[in-house]
Design goal:
By secondary structure, the chain is an alpha+beta fold. It has three domains: 2-144, Aminopeptidase; 165-332, Gcn5-related N-acetyltransferase (GNAT) (Aminopeptidase); 340-443, Nonspecific Lipid-transfer Protein, Chain A. It is 26% helix and 29% strand. It contains twelve helices and 23 strands. Strand 19 and strand 20 form a beta hairpin. Helix 2 packs antiparallel against helix 3. The two termini are 32 Å apart. It comes from Ktedonobacter racemifer DSM 44963. This is GCN5-related N-acetyltransferase. It holds the Pfam family Acetyltransf_9. InterPro entries: Acyl_CoA_acyltransferase.
């Protein structure tokens, strides 16, 4: 009942000292904008981050594909004039897939608190609010891209690769030879290009255990933004064309540059295109796009580096000339939270059964008992089918766990992020019974996932 209440737009909670926790309305737009601009700065003496403020304002316009203007949780100080917003976080909605099985995901974003109000538990209150709404909407998983360590305290674990990039020093990029012709060019995407963009974007899906299924509305939003308030645009969606105007691929890049680096967030080439032949001209086009980006700060200086943030690995990385000395930067990680692990594992039954059927353990019957020290789960199989997944605790005497993992560490195995032997090496309290090792390897293989975020 509490979760249903907290999920409601009318929910309101007094936190003491005039602080009130509630959900946003469009009337809160400017106060949320002011908080974001104030908090997201590297130094106290820096001016407000107008770029971040504009981003918060754009999220509150009511047309974002992942949230509405009623999806910011906020804390306001009613004892101060104007009731300033002193902490906030919003909830986005994604559709992810686990080897083709789709499920909704709640994603906290724009987490901010005024430095004068920190260490009072305001972010904990906000996350309880966001979790309540996310769970009430049927999201079995929450995920966030956030600062190191912090979100562990709210039940999150690093469990998927996030980002990873290839950085190119543009000073090393050779000029087009005299009399030469570029093999590709860029143009702004239109709504008519969305099907083609989706076709290119999903080419890597089969390589990932987990995949972010972006809706058409996501691409449409970034296309339409240029025709509404161009100065508030944060991302630029471009098509890669050959000299005859035929579509070769797409580029999703930053539209605003606050430093010497220009970042491409996603880029894929259509099937049948010779990426190696296109790449030199594509890099020239990306350099020009970066030079045209909206400059958000004074004294930014010239563009120096191009960052292709396409994951820890990408087929396009392999066709970049070694003469450019590309630097591969390792991924960070998504934080992932699964609030009801037995229910989520049972939801994955078709995937787990398919893995079993294709293995040397086809037709397996038995129990897999996973001990998480504070609690655990039991997966019961019969003739290769997952009959049930139930909460389980290791008995006081005659412990019979199939495997043991410290709390939340199992999520790294579940999402294919780390191998069992890696977890044993990093966490000495990871133990696996001999008879369960092969089964765990079949049910939970390791494979890097590119989850666009």
């Amino acid at each position: 009942m509490h979760s249903q209440t907290a999920a409601s737009s009318s929910y309101r909670k007094e936190l003491g000292d005039g602080l009130v926790l509630r959900w946003s309305t469009p009337a809160d737009t400017e106060r949320l904008t002011q908080l974001a601009a104030h908090v997201f700065r590297d130094k106290a003496e820096e001016p407000p981050n107008e770029d971040m403020g504009a981003y918060a304002r754009a999220l509150m316009q009511g047309d974002h594909p992942l949230m509405s203007s009623y999806d910011f949780g906020l804390v306001e100080d009613t004892h101060k004039e104007g009731n300033p917003v002193v902490a906030c976080a919003c909830l986005w909605r994604h559709e992810w897939e686990y080897e083709g099985l789709r499920f909704p995901v709640g994603r906290p974003e724009i987490v901010a608190s005024d430095p004068q109000y920190r260490n009072r538990g305001l972010i904990r209150e906000l996350f309880a609010l966001l979790h309540a709404r996310s769970e009430s909407e049927g999201h079995p998983v929450q995920a966030i891209t956030g600062i190191p360590y912090f979100y562990r305290q709210f039940g999150y674990e690093y469990a998927l690769d996030l980002g990873g990039s290839c950085t190119i020093n543009l000073a090393l990029l050779p000029q087009l030879k005299a009399g030469g012709q570029e093999t590709c060019q860029l143009r702004s995407a239109t709504r008519a290009d969305i099907d083609f963009i989706q076709h290119c974007y999903t080419r890597r899906q089969a390589d990932s255990i987990v995949w972010n299924s972006l809706p058409d509305a996501f691409w449409q939003y970034h296309i339409d933004a240029w025709h509404q308030v161009p100065l508030n645009v944060h991302n630029d969606l471009q098509l890669i064309l050959d000299p005859a105007g035929e579509r070769l691929g797409y580029v999703f890049a930053m539209a605003r540059r606050g430093g010497p680096r220009f970042t491409v967030w996603a880029m894929d080439i259509a099937p049948g295109v010779n990426a190696q032949q296109v790449m030199p001209s594509l890099l020239h086009a990306l350099k020009a796009l970066g030079e045209q980006a909206i400059v958000t700060q004074t004294n930014v200086g010239p563009l120096q580096k191009l960052s292709l943030s396409l994951g820890g690995s990408h087929p396009l990385y392999t066709v970049i000339s070694k003469q450019l000395v590309p630097v591969i930067n390792k991924p960070y990680a998504w934080y992932v939270r699964v609030h009801d692990l037995p229910a989520f594992l049972y939801r994955l039954a078709p995937v787990l059964e398919r893995r079993l059927a294709a293995s040397a353990l086809a037709g397996y019957s038995g129990d897999l008992k996973l001990n998480f020290y504070r609690d655990g789960v039991q997966l019961t199989f019969k003739a290769g089918k997952l009959e049930q997944v139930t909460p389980w605790r290791v008995p006081t005497y005659e412990a019979n766990a199939s495997a043991s993992f410290a709390p939340l560490v199992f999520l790294q195995l579940l999402f294919g992020y780390r191998k069992l032997e890696d977890l044993r090496y990093a966490f000495p309290d990871t133990n696996v019974a001999d008879e369960a090792e092969a089964l765990l390897g079949v049910l939970f293989p390791t494979r890097p996932s590119f989850v666009f975020g």
